[in-house]
# Entry
Amino acid sequence: MGKGIFVVGTDTGVGKTIVSAGLAMTLKARGLKVGVMKPVATGCIGSDQRLVSHDAVYLFEAAENEYAPLTSPFRFRNPVAPSVAEIYEQTKVDVQTIKNAYQQLCHHYDYVIVEGIGGLMVPIQKKYYVANLIRDLGLPILIVSPIGLGAINHTLLTVDSAIIRGLIIKGIIFNRAPLVNFSLAELTNPKVVHELTGLPILGSLPELEDLDVENCKFGKLGQVFKDRINIDALLKPEPTLVLGY
Ligand SMILES: Nc1ncnc2c1ncn2[C@@H]1O[C@H](COP(=O)(O)OP(=O)(O)OP(=O)(O)O)[C@@H](O)[C@H]1O
Ligand SMILES: [Mg+2]
# Structure
């Protein structure tokens, strides 16, 4: 196990899908066969027999994958934590099924990108959190954090939680950096987080036009991600230590 990366957000809606898709496009352009996964998706649409996850479709299209059923084995309609959704819907999350799907993707692809559900401490089942799933899949994490005010606190809380739970952090990407008129927080947050944690900052993804997960629009994501994000830390085989933290 452990062939790829688990993309974690400091919160829900912070850009995990966008970053996962950009990463998939960039790695593909480098010649890797990239598989994608959103193991549990909530807030899905469609009929009960055929629930569709916008995130899974977006990732699937970005990576040009071939094995749709493996991409998102568990889908729920209600936009709540999986442990809550399964009480109200006719589906139970089975971790072994997720592990099997992930292992099959590892068999088909060189590198597998798994998008998290909300943040690290979202319960998938009672007392089984996203962080537990990451450990069970044996993957290191990439943290996505909005660049603005609050980034230091939210990023350090996520880093702390990851360390406590024995996860390996490969780096941090800051999202939605304005192209002009940076606030002081936006200008300084990446450097401050690096100084406080010692973790690699892989870069900042700017606010982009024509980017829409629900309507599967990619705009210039592939090109901008390739130009602005340094993904070499992700590809290093050795774990990234948290130095000076
Ligand atoms: N850099 C960006 N520029 C413009 N829009 C962005 C950017 N990053 C994210 N968005 C927009 O913000 C919304 C949330 O982003 P995204 O879906 O990637 O978040 P998420 O962390 O995956 O959310 P969820 O927790 O629901 O999975 C999307 O509609 C997306 O289009
Ligand atoms: Mg998402």
Q: What stands out?
A: Residues 16-17, 55, 115 surround magnesium ion (ligand 2) (CB under 6 Å).
